[in-house]
Amino acid sequence: xxxxxxxxxxxxxxxxxxxxxxxxxxxxxxxxxxxxxxxxxxxxxxxxxxxxxxxxxxxxxxxxxxxxxxxxxxxxxxxxxxxxxxxxxxxxxxxxxxxxxxxxxxxxxxxxxxxxxxxxxxxxxxxxxxxxxxxxxxxxxxxxxxxxxxxxxxxxxxxxxxxxxxxxxxxxxxxxxxxxxxxxxxxxxxxxxxxxxxxxxxxxxxxxxxxxxxxxxxxxxxxxxxxxxxxxxxxxxxxxxxxxxxxxxxxxxxxxxxxxxxxxxxxxxxxxxxxxxxxxxxxxxxxxxxxxxxxxxxxxxxxxxxxxxxxxxxxxxxxxxxx
Amino acid sequence: xxxxxxxxxxxxxxxxxxxxxxxxxxxxxxxxxxxxxxxxxxxxxxxxxxxxxxxxxxxxxxxxxxxxxxxxxxxxxxxxxxxxxxxxxxxxxxxxxxxxxxxxxxxxxxxxxxxxxxxxxxxxxxxxxxxxxxxxxxxxxxxxxxxxxxxxxxxxxxxxxxxxxxxxxxxxxxxxxxxxxxxxxxxxxxxxxxxxxxxxxxxxxxxxxxxxxxxxxxxxxxxxxxxxxxxxxxxxxxxxxxxxxxxxxxxxxxxxxxxxxxxxxxxxxxxxxxxxxxxxxxxxxxxxxxxxxxxxxxxxxxxxxxxxxxxxxxxxxxxxxxxxxxxxxxxxxxxxxxxxxxxxxxxxxxxxxxxxxxxxxxxxxxxxxxxxxxxxxxxxxxxxxxxxxxxxxxxxxxxxxxxxxxxxxxxxxxxxxxxxxxxxxxxxxxxxxxxxxxxxxxxxxxxxxxxxxxxxxxxxxxxxxxxxxxxxxxxxxxxxxxxxxxxxxxxxxxxxxxxxxxxxx
Lengths: 323, 505
Description:
The structure holds two protein chains of two kinds. By secondary structure, chain A is mainly alpha-helical.
């Protein structure tokens, strides 16, 4: 194998990339309508929102923690966005900005409490999951907000180019910014350093508390953005938004080879993880298979991906490979 | 002319119920390598933490260039050009060498884009200066332990440290790598740096240090005096308050005993080829090799953790296939005393009793169906007593005990299991002289009682003090076998010759 090719094979995104291509080829062979513009548009809509959910969790996986409140933050931001438009009559950009700020604050609170108390993120976000969800239900009384402005509805329904929906634009920008942050900005490297070896990071003068707080704030912001886009797509502010995000949020980064212990994540591979999940979900619909099976398939996918990663890491860590 | 760069004057540190440091003083000169010695618990670690800004002294003052300073944290120490190479690895495995070296510097501007090209360039300079042939873009996880250590030194130097503190820098290095490190340290000293060298290995301290401070029970046993005229015995007397027992090594020939463990032409899934090795009943066979030679890996294959793919393994003369670690312990009576007791040997959160009893749970439960603390206690207590583990009670959490006592519990665990064959991996890493001597006596005594011991250690004096025969491993192959004469100089030369014969070829 040439060195260039071998380097590509060793990257994180190569495996998911091959699987995604294979999945597309197989599904398209059985059902050519899979590649129709309409179907591609549907796929992209799902991918746009799910990618933000996955990125939200990925930012926390990077520091070796987990955020159980991703869905609760997304849901709270979503109903706040719709509610501010309906009840207070705010214009869409103002409502969106305020709602995003709310997502950021929710994440920030998670991070601050974790950094201050030193209690595990699992426990803190379990509590805040209940808290944020409770506020959501208290505000909405479990009833949706219908007063979503037409401009927002249009944003969620129209395409920017060919089959590419407008909703894909914010996600694409976020993906680029995240890539830049994790690969080029010190703050992104700090997140990975803290995830990789917290003790070493601390002794290198990196403030662990600050880094943890930043990661959680980013996670909250991204979850909020996903919630806003979902309001645009669904055309209403559903209080149930976010209830089913948890499994997906972990599945995509894990399929993309993220190390749950922290210190290593990949934006393209996570994105491909989202793509794979979307294709399989879509295929089940196309083949008239019970959609409830999606969960089962997702479960197997996660197990398969974790197994594959272990195998890969075992190979990389072979002592003979050291210099 | 030498001058005082750094001084700690009458420094004290209190912890709830303990006075960890009492009016300790220390001064460091330019162009000098200063040894900091002391048994475990003597106060070295709090002193180091005070010098590096992790702790603040409760009493006393620190001076830099004669001016009093108050360090507010590790970053502050770095800013004052006090660098540290910590005992434990402090590198981010997936980051490149260059990024690891410069991690501190990136801290000031979280949002300023990183210029990797410049980073690599600067890192190359430091690596060149240290004579290290490493590509700065290499991920640290791909380096050998020794190279990682060098990278840590490069990292400390890149901060233009004038005071460089090295905490047990040779703990995971082999003799050859240590020589390279020492050459480097001498070079730094000659350019005017002030080094503080913390080590348990007195041979090394005598080799490169010119001044010394000894701590005992949180106080100065001697304060920043010249090494001149100090012999090993003098240092030991200051450290433990009495002289060291002379080595009681006597030549033994146990090759006439029945073979307990035999490897014939063994190959393993980790890459060992044609390994031949025999340990007789009552014999200590040393397995020596550089880091990365495959010693620990071989031990783990014998224990059934990784597969043996070729050749034959015999236990007590019978060919066996060991499928799992549980198999090795319970069916074949082989115990493994891990190199890394914190990660692999002990459950730090659990009590002494639970840790020492872990190997016998199965044995006891076979007859009783359920375990009671009482049965375990009767089984384990004699060994804890025999090894003189200093613990308030068997219910004490192991994590609160000293390193030496933790190691004793690891040994007790295997004694309780009643193993016939014991593989001991780096038994004295991080253990003080008193405990080490005791541990050596214990291992010799165990073998006299009939246990076959396979000893893995990078500590050459320890190897020569303990082993009856020494097998040299290099690059996952056996290079040769030597009968130990007990003469350190001849043995160490013979061993290094075996290793370098291969490297030269």
